[in-house]
């Protein structure tokens, strides 16, 4: 019984190649609104969204994140991080940093629900999107708090997740097979 929502959930993929043109304001607002309508523990809505659509700033953030990760010794990502072409935002024209209230009941769960809502909304609008956590390491660098201030993230909020948005290219996205035996039933 596939309906539009179920089809959207199955067709969403993490997209890592973006067209350079910016999404429309209407598309952006629809995606953000979907984030705002996520469930949250005790309805605390413990999230804050920071929208970044400044290419030069995204580039600078990506470079600093890569440098910080390389200095912190992430051998697994070395090849990626030393590639000058690689952006932690995948060169998407829009990034949303999702921050959570530090002393909320479960800000990580609230913000993750908001992130997933945004990804599904993006897919429903035929936009490309990807959940990106690599950029969040920027806020763990020595000058991380300054970045928080520069981006206008309220001081009691901690950056947790990133979502990038844009238009799809012709490059097909890889579909990973689902792991088996991850459900059990007691009836
Ligand atoms: C918590 C979390 C962090 C992620 N961080 C990144 C990231 O930094 N960069 C990236 O390209 N993809 C990132 N992803 C996307 C995953 O790699 C992707 O969801 C996974 O490979 C499955 O592919 P699919 O989304 O197309 O189903 C992240 C996903 C999650 C849930």
The CATH C-level class name: Alpha Beta
**How big a fraction of the residues is strand?**
15-25%
Unreliable spans are none
What is the overall silhouette?
globular
Number of helices in the DSSP assignment: 6
Radius of gyration: 17 Å
Strand order of the largest sheet: 1-2-4-3
Level of helix content? 25-40%
Report on the biggest sheet.
4 strands, antiparallel
CATH topology, by name, is NADH Oxidase
Average pLDDT value? 96
Task: Provide structural commentary.
By secondary structure, the protein is of the alpha+beta class. The protein has a single domain (15-166), classed as NADH Oxidase (3-Layer(aba) Sandwich). 35% of the residues lie in helices and 16% in strands. It has a four-stranded antiparallel beta sheet. Helix 2 (25-36) packs antiparallel against helix 5 (107-124). The longest helix has 18 residues, at 107-124. Bound molecules: flavin mononucleotide (FMN). Flavin mononucleotide binds at residues 13-14, 16, 130-134, 176.
């Amino acid at each position: 019984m596939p309906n539009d929502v179920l089809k959207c959930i199955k067709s969403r993929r993490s997209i890592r190649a973006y067209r350079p043109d910016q999404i429309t304001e209407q598309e952006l607002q629809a995606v953000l609104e979907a984030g705002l309508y996520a469930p949250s523990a005790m309805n605390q809505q413990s999230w804050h969204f920071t929208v970044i659509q400044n290419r030069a700033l995204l580039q600078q953030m990506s470079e600093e994140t890569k440098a910080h990760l390389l200095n912190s010794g992430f051998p697994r990502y070395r090849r990626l991080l030393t590639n000058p072409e690689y952006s932690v935002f995948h060169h998407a024209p829009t990034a949303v940093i999702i921050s959570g209230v530090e002393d909320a009941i479960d800000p990580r769960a609230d913000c993750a629900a908001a992130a997933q809502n945004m990804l599904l909304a993006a897919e429903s609008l035929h936009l490309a999107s990807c959940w990106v956590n690599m950029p969040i390491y920027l806020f763990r660098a020595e000058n991380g708090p300054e970045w928080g201030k520069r981006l206008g993230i309220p001081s009691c909020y901690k950056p947790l997740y990133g979502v990038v948005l844009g238009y799809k290219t012709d490059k097909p996205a890889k579909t990973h097979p689902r792991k088996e035996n991850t459900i059990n039933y007691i009836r």
